[in-house]
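Appendix C. Worked example: 4-hydroxy-4-methyl-2-oxoglutarate aldolase
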Amino acid sequence: MTAIEFATADLIDDFEDELQSCETQFRQYGGRPAFAGPVATVRCFRDNALVKDVLGTPGAGKVLVVDGAGSLASALMGDLIAASAVERGWAGVVINGAVRDVVALRALDLGVKALGSNPRKSAKNGVGDVNVPVSFGGVEFRPEDWLYSDEDGIVVAHRRLR
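Step 2, the predicted output written as structure tokens:
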């Protein structure tokens, strides 16, 4: 897959009326600092079974947006799930919650943004929703929207811009 070249600041300058800019200040954990792709979503709370299931399917350059309600009480993704995402062609994961295994995440060719880290495992009951609109940081993330992420932040459009 060919890399998409962009800078979120340039996208805002060129397409401001079409973009939502996420106000949440995420930390960068993955080995790919800039990533973009169509959005897939999971809504869950302290339970990562659906995250694991979705990232275990072919990603085709998509970005998984996980709304974990901002909880830092347990990690929604670690190195094994992230490695599975790389193997299946996901471009990135944005987690409104925590990750773990941060040293290993930095070594993976995957964009990973999260609020923070916690070594505690999450539940594995499969409670939550897949491919539904999720909202945080002043943005509604809808399946098949386009997400662009780099060191400056995250922007979302209803179509591919670049």
